[in-house]
């Protein structure tokens, strides 16, 4: 479509209905304005040519904190913040991308995809995705793209995975006849992070961003994770999902983050296995004294978190299916407590005076002490970034004033679960 066609399509009832599904009721016009701005940016930089639209959401992690990299189980959902893009095939052997959000304008040569030693930044990430595509036998090609994003950056809602899945959806639509699966997407994203960013991440973020809705994922067979969609919305129980940015991002905490999977895998290696999912829980418990002596106490604590998080995810899913929502919310809190006390990812051990996550959790627990239908927990990789809060809708405004006053910042983001993951958007039909 061209810019004029897109502007016309935005006025259609079918497009407005799609935007309600993507962004939640009441947010349609705000996001339509984002797409108008997106088209203007594309035309300004690439001319009045035909383009396609793509969208990829951030994600919320509900249960299964730091389990995916050891082939565990998770419960997660895509959210209504997203990275959007206008793009076209350019018929060359290069990709030119302009990211308005991060003030970037760069070109990638498809003949030069080798790691260059840089372990941060957008260019190495895209090179890694392209290399991951080629390694699995998928096609790549040249395109021009203009992107913008409202996914909170470096804060635990997977802005990087959202962007990765956006790139995958572009490559799938333009060059692979839409034959790729969300699992294919996720593996390409993880390859880029593992090999090019040197970050020991799993598949959770990518799978949740790519799949859409609330999903439970079992990573026991990591090449082919088992994904099940769960039919649930917080609106059913009259609650809002709030993400609170505690004021410090986790972009520069790869060492702290990577130590979690590394230590879990050290515990697995004690039993001659690669990941903890391969070690029976009862066998691990019988060897706790020996593991403590060999590897130290934190390895034991993080392994215990892993096993009990897997059990908890199963229980959370059962509670949702059986509509036992009080139990579900209680287990979200239990998962957060385990992350704080057992996994120990609420602050960095090297900077113990900086505990923004802990402060936000403590203040939130004080607020919700007498509110039965509520929950809070650390969100995402942890160490810094955001917390997740679930509250009855009637408390949202009051809590927002309360926590923003205490943290001295405009830091609360009201979100909703969106139906769709990373998609190509055809709004002209």
What does this entry look like structurally?
The chain has 429 residues and is of the alpha+beta class. The chain has helices spanning 3-9, 13-23, 28-46, 122-135, 159-175, 182-196, 204-211, 254-269, 281-286, 288-295, 297-321, 325-343, 356-367, 396-407; strands at 52-63, 73-89, 94-99, 104-109, 143-149, 214-218, 226-230, 239-245, 375-378, 386-392, 412-415, 423-425. Helix 11 (297-321) packs antiparallel against helix 12 (325-343). The longest helix has 25 residues, at 297-321. The radius of gyration is 21 Å and the shape is globular.
What would a concise description of this structure say?
By secondary structure, the protein is of the alpha+beta class. It is 44% helix and 19% strand.
Map the helices and strands:
Layout: H1 3-9, H2 13-23, H3 28-46, E1 52-63, E2 73-89, E3 94-99, E4 104-109, H4 122-135, E5 143-149, H5 159-175, H6 182-196, H7 204-211, E6 214-218, E7 226-230, E8 239-245, H8 254-269, H9 281-286, H10 288-295, H11 297-321, H12 325-343, H13 356-367, E9 375-378, E10 386-392, H14 396-407, E11 412-415, E12 423-425
Parallel strand pairs: 3-5
Antiparallel strand pairs: 1-2, 1-12, 2-5, 2-6, 3-4, 6-7, 8-10, 8-11, 9-10
Roughly what is the average pLDDT, rounded to an integer? Answer: 94
Query: Percentage of helical residues?
Result: 40-55%
Number of helices: 14
| Low-confidence sequence ranges | none
Structure summary, number of beta strands: 12
Largest sheet: 8 strands, mixed
Global morphology: globular
Structural class: alpha+beta
What's the end-to-end separation, in Å?
Answer: 11 Å
Query: What is the succession of H and E elements?
Result: HHHEEEEHEHHHEEEHHHHHHEEHEE
- Beta content comes to 15-25%
Radius of gyration: 21 Å
